């Protein structure tokens, strides 16, 4: 129990024997229902679970407690032979008979979990299996046809595979239609009529409370597609509460969660151990990167080799601009999982920012060899070509990424950047707009839009977009600085000052904010003291970073004049001496003042 | 020649033979030398045999055979006997069945005298003959004569009644009377004398409530308004045996399956009481699930949707004795569960009227798959396919219908519908016209004819087509509604309103009527009234995913915006976007609402989206410029405090 605070976990993890069992069950269950992504997540997690042989002493005690609870039936559980026996004794449940009974799935750690996945052999299930095989072969229509006579609220697997096939079918069709139509992808109005059919059918079932977790998940996905987000949230939470290991349901849910939904998650989601994973990725989503990292760090104690957790940490570090750490983590990740493609575009972004040409090239080569038709791979290649200055080729790869997944956000934004480099403003705007359409909190795209308009000196437009960027990511100084500059250009100095203040508050790494702020104070005749303070701070930072430039001279000149006017000769002298050492127009003024100070009269 | 001679010789035989001759069986007649060897038939035996041949020919639809034998029977039978009259009737009937209408009439007329002689004793035959004559005349399109025949009869009725009172009574009398009115009504309808036609159809139904054709004509051909329809059902008298028919009629009229059915039947189930029906119902094995259990013993509860409200207890009143269970079953419900087409089509129409097209499609598609020639479902099916933009299905439907039954109006209507869907309006018009020629009383085709004009912006022609439809089908609200919509398009608001009101009077359940009425009030700037109407339309529409629903929501949004209830307006617009998130005008409207609410940033966002989706819209561009100006007034503090991110 104490571990809760110590490890920053939200719910306790049960002993790993139970975790193992639950994961095994999940893999079979999800795989049987063709939810491969979720099954993949579960199986990767299972393979990374701390092996029992190296379990430390604290673990063994918990074992003993556990066996006491179960009446000491299985006293020694350390070898595999026992496992075999145990399997036979285990209660067999058939998840296809799961209804909406939350009680049926043991959420609480105190409840025992002794289940293996088994499906009853019956004619109906044979049909379901046939449909599943057809589903694997992408014969969706046929799969629907095969399983249609068995649709009944009591046969949830049949319902699931039927509507899942229909869903895939309609997705496939819309995609084809989209490609056939000459319209631009971002503007395409191809709607999916089957989605309505699925939604209506599932609504009927749901009204009567006749959907199990998997079907609820599917229902949630459909609702999300139909832009009914609030409803989708509730349904997905319901699904997760019925079956917490349904990782796909969580990823879908996480995409539509906002900052305001914190209570919704914390209170409505049942306290199963998977909730830790949920919460951590939620934190990353809502820009609480540090919280995410702490939870994931705690989880790593249980799953030391989990690539998923490592990836999460890396992602969070990237978002919080800790590029060095993120780079290390991604490197680790590549060595653990050399044929990885997930989130490799983030890795390449970091390498791009750091202009690490060699590693980016090697990453591009590796991912290209691994699987070249992945949107992530295409993004890596796009970044690679962009760094090489071959922007046209970069656009080509980003375009391919979009073709592979039209909602692949970073490809849209990056493509916008490339278009900007190529000076094709209209295309850039379109790419950014689409990105913003997909995710209205994507600050990079907002920023890009702002930049595009700024180049064309449409400051009123630009300020609107920069404001959106800043509001989407309020802790980022870059956004505020950009907005401030825009306001300055637009002669809204007061607002500009406010923005630079904000930028300064969030540790402006580029150091423009302070200088700009000081200048504004001078220009507007606000308060010389304040301006001097800002210049001084700016100067101090510049000294620390050993960085000199035009701004340094300006700061020195202002401070010199300021202290000379205040008759603070010692301070004035200090600045004048520094100024004289530099080349520039202020040198003469410094000399004059210095002469005046030094001459007794 | 030879055969003729032979016949005439035989013909004489029965004249000689005594009436009781048939008493003498061939086995008992040693007088006949041939009897024991060749068994020569007696005349009665021959006639009997011929009669049987003729009847079986009719039964098997070999009308030419039937005519041949009936003719022979007629020739062989004794004049002015019952037999003779029956022979005349049979022959006439055979002619009629073989579609030789005038021959049939001619025959009856030629034998008029002998018929009249007999018929003073047997009124039944007079009726039968007259109905046959009338039907033949109707079939030959000789409507005047048909009406004459029938009306004469109606006039004579009283006289006949005077001294035939005792013979004709009760059900049988009413049956024929009903039939008479039905034919008369059909004749009037063919003359486009709707008033008399309706009157006679009604009389036909009053006399015999089982006269489905009369009902079908009245309701299916939109001859009655809603009010009249309800009145009609109330006036009809049903017996215990056809109460279910009442349920059906009411279902038809109300456009929804009746929930508290009256017609029920007691059935015996020979099941041991342990395995009582509800056990079997609920615990259907998983393997059986999906097999449509749809007979008496298999009314499985999950399949009952609309009429599921009938409690289990009412349906299964078990009265067990001697190991037998008696259950009371609602006939309509049983029909519903056995997926009877006539019942299903009501359900489909209900969904269609509620604009729940996808559901209606599901039902009608199943119906058509089962019975492609279920013609009364086809106009609905075509309408649904148009709504769903399902070109392929509509094409094959039209193709199949034309190749199988080119003589039916509905086939050509479907062809027209296909061309309408692919936007070849002039071609479609040609086919609708063709359909109209085949059947003047085919409402769907008239309306579609109007639509095809309206679609190519020929308002005047469209109007006249709709007006014809309104005249021919006073019970079809669509005609009035479309007239109203045309008026609305040309901005003649008061006249439009009158049309919509008429439409509403005819059918008070169509959400579109209310929506259009709302639009009129909206245009007249009477926003309160408009909102009220839009809300009614909103409540009537059940499918949340169709275009109409979106339009209603959009209208509600506009209304609220005009009334300066911006919050409400925004809510409605947002709901619209959840149905279709790619509609630029919704975004523009939403933006405008935000703009008026002085939430300039949101307004800008929405305008941008609209502009993005439809880049060549000048109006949106002006709005963007306006909001940019307004945005300049917003300070950064306000932005931060009012951020919705």
From TrEMBL, chain A:
One Gene Ontology CC term in the entry: anaphase-promoting complex
Keywords: Cell cycle, Cell division, Mitosis, Repeat, TPR repeat, Ubl conjugation pathway
The organism's place on the tree of life at top rank: Eukaryota
UniProt keyword Transport, yes or no: no
Record-linked InterPro entries: APC8, TPR-like_helical_dom_sf, TPR_rpt
TPR repeat locations: 375-408, 409-442, 477-510
Cdc23 domain residues: 19-311
Entry keyword annotation includes Nucleus: no
Gene Ontology annotations of biological process type: anaphase-promoting complex-dependent catabolic process; cell division; positive regulation of mitotic metaphase/anaphase transition; protein ubiquitination
Protein name: Cdc23 domain-containing protein
Naturally occurring in which organism (per UniProt): Euplotes crassus
From TrEMBL, chain B:
GO CC annotations on file: anaphase-promoting complex; cytoplasm
Keywords: Cell cycle, Cell division, Mitosis, Repeat, TPR repeat, Ubl conjugation pathway
GO biological-process terms attached to the record: anaphase-promoting complex-dependent catabolic process; cell division; positive regulation of mitotic metaphase/anaphase transition; protein ubiquitination
PROSITE patterns reported in the protein's UniProt record: TPR
Residue spans of the TPR repeats: 409-442, 443-476, 550-583, 584-617
Polar residues: compositionally biased ranges: 1-11
Keyword Cell cycle applies: yes
Coiled coil residues, start to end: none
SMART domains documented for this protein: TPR (SM00028)
Pfam families: ANAPC3, TPR_12, TPR_8
InterPro entries per UniProt: TPR-like_helical_dom_sf (IPR011990), TPR_rpt (IPR019734)
Annotated spans, Disordered: 1-41
Name by which UniProt lists this protein: Anaphase-promoting complex subunit 6
């Amino acid at each position: 129990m104490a571990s809760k605070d110590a490890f920053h976990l939200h719910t306790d993890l049960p002993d790993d024997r139970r975790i193992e069992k639950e994961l095994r069950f999940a893999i079979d269950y999800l795989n049987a229902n063709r939810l491969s992504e979720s099954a993949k997540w579960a199986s990767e997690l299972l393979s990374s679970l701390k092996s029992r042989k190296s379990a430390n002493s604290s673990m063994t005690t918990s074992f003993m407690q556990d066996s006491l609870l179960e009446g000491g039936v299985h006293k020694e559980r350390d070898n595999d032979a026992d496992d075999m026996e145990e399997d036979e004794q285990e209660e067999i449940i058939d998840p296809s008979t799961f209804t909406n009974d939350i009680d049926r799935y043991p959420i609480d750690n105190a409840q025992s979990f002794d289940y293996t996945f088994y499906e009853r052999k019956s004619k109906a299930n044979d049909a379901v299996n046939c449909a599943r095989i057809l589903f694997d072969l992408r014969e969706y229509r046929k799969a629907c046809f095969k399983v249609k006579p068995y649709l009944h609220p009591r046969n949830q697997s049949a319902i699931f595979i039927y509507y899942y096939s229909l869903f895939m079918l309609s997705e496939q069709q819309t995609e084809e239609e989209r490609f056939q139509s000459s319209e631009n992808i971002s503007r395409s109005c191809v709607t999916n009529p089957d989605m309505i059919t699925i939604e209506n059918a599932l609504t009927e079932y749901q009204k009567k409370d006749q959907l199990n977790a998997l079907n609820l998940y599917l229902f949630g996905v459909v609702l999300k597609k139909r832009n009914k987000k609030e409803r989708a949230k509730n349904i997905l939470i319901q699904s997760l509460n019925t079956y917490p290991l349904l990782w796909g349901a969580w990823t879908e849910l996480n995409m539509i969660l906002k900052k305001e939904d914190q209570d919704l998650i914390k209170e409505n989601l049942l306290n199963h151990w998977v909730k830790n994973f949920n919460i951590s990725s939620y934190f990353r989503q809502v820009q609480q990167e540090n919280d995410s990292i702490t939870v994931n760090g705690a989880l790593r104690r249980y799953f030391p080799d989990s690539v998923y957790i490592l990836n999460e940490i890396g992602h969070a570090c990237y978002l919080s601009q800790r590029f060095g750490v993120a780079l290390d983590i991604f490197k680790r990740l590549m060595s653990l999982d050399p044929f990885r493609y997930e989130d490799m575009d983030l890795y390449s972004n970091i390498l791009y920012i750091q202009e690490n040409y060699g590693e980016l090239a090697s990453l591009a080569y590796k991912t290209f060899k691994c699987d070249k038709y992945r949107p992530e791979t295409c993004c890596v290649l796009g970044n690679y070509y962009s760094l090489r200055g071959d922007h046209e080729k970069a656009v080509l790869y980003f375009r391919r990424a979009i073709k592979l997944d039209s909602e692949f956000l970073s490809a849209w934004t990056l493509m916008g950047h490339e278009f900007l480099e190529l000076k094709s403003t209209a295309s850039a705007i379109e790419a950014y707009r689409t990105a913003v359409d997909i995710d209205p909190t994507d600050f990079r795209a907002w920023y890009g839009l702002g930049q595009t308009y700024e180049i064309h000196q449409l400051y009123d437009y630009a300020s609107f977009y920069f404001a959106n960027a800043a509001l989407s990511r309020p802790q980022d100084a870059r956004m505020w600085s950009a907005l401030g500059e825009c306001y300055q250009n637009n002669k809204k100095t007061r607002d500009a000052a406010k923005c630079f203040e904000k930028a300064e508050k969030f540790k402006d790494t580029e150091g423009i904010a302070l200088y700009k702020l000081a200048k504004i104070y001078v220009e507007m005749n606000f308060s010389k003291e304040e301006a001097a303070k800002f210049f001084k701070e700016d100067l101090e930072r510049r000294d620390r970073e050993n960085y000199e430039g035009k701004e340094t001279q300006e700061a020195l000149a202002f401070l010199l004049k300021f202290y000379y006017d205040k008759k603070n000769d010692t301070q004035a002298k200090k600045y004048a001496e520094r100024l004289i050492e530099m080349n520039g127009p202020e040198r003469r003024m410094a000399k004059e003042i210095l002469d005046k100070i030094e001459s007794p009269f | 020649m030879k055969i003729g001679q032979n016949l005439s010789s035989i013909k004489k035989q029965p004249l000689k033979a005594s009436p009781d001759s048939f008493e003498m069986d061939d086995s008992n007649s040693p007088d006949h030398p041939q009897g024991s060897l060749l068994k020569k038939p007696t005349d009665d035996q021959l006639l009997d045999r011929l009669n049987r041949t003729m009847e079986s020919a009719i039964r098997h639809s070999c009308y030419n055979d039937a005519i041949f034998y009936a003719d022979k029977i007629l020739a062989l039978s004794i004049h002015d006997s019952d037999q003779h009259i029956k022979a005349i009737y049979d022959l006439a009937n055979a002619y009629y069945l073989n579609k030789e209408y005038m021959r049939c009439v001619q025959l009856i007329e030629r034998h008029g005298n002998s018929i009249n002689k007999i018929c003073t004793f047997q009124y039944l035959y007079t009726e039968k003959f007259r109905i046959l004559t009338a039907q033949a005349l109707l079939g030959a399109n000789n409507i005047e004569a048909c009406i004459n025949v029938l009306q004469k009869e109606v006039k004579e009725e009283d006289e006949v009644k005077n001294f035939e009172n005792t013979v004709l009574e009760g059900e049988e009398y009413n049956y024929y009377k009903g039939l008479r009115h039905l034919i008369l009504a059909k004749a009037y309808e063919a003359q486009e004398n709707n008033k008399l036609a309706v009157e006679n159809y009604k009389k036909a139904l009053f006399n015999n409530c089982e006269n489905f054709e009369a009902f079908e004509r009245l309701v299916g051909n939109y001859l009655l308004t809603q009010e009249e329809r309800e009145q009609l059902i109330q006036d009809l008298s049903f017996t215990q045996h056809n109460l279910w028919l009442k349920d059906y009629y009411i279902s038809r009229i109300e456009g929804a399956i009746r929930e508290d059915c009256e017609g029920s039947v007691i059935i015996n189930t020979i099941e041991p009481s342990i395995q009582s029906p509800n056990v079997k119902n609920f615990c259907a094995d998983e393997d059986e699930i999906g097999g449509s259990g749809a007979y008496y013993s298999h009314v499985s509860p999950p399949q009952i949707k609309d009429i599921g409200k009938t409690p289990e207890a009412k349906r299964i009143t078990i009265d067990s004795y001697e190991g037998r269970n008696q259950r009371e079953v609602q006939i309509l419900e049983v029909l519903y569960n056995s997926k009877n087409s006539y019942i299903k089509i009501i359900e489909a129409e209900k969904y269609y009227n509620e604009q729940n097209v996808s559901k209606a499609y599901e039902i009608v598609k199943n119906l058509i798959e089962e019975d492609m020639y279920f013609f009364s479902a086809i106009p609905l099916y075509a309408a649904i396919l148009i709504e769903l933009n399902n070109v392929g299905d509509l094409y094959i439907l039209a193709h199949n219908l034309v190749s199988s039954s080119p003589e039916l109006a509905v086939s050509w209507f479907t062809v027209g519908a296909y061309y309408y869907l692919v936007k070849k309006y002039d071609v479609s018009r040609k086919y609708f016209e063709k359909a109209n020629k085949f059947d003047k009383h085919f409402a769907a085709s008239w309306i579609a004819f109007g639509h095809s004009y309206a679609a190519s912006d020929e308002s005047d022609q469209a109007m006249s087509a709709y007006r014809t439809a309104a005249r021919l089908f006073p019970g079809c609200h669509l005609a009035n509604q479309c007239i109203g919509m045309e008026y609305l398009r040309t901005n003649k608001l008061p006249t439009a309103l009158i049309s919509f009101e008429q439409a509403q009077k005819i059918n008070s359940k169509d959400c579109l009527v209310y929506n259009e009425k709302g639009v009129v009030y909206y245009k007249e700037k009477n926003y309160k009234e408009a909102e009220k109407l839009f809300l009614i339309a909103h409540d009537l529409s059940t499918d949340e995913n169709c275009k109409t629903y979106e339009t209603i929501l959009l209208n509600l949004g506009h209304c609220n915006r005009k009334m300066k209830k911006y919050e409400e307006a925004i809510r409605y617009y947002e709901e619209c976007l959840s149905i279709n998130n790619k509609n630029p005008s919704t975004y523009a409207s939403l933006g405008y609402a935000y703009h008026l609410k002085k939430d300039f940033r949101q307004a800008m966002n929405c305008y941008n989206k609209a502009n993005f989706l439809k880049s060549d819209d000048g109006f949106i561009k002006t709005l963007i410029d306006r909001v940019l100006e307004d945005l300049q007034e917003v300070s950064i503090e306000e932005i931060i405090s009012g951020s919705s991110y």
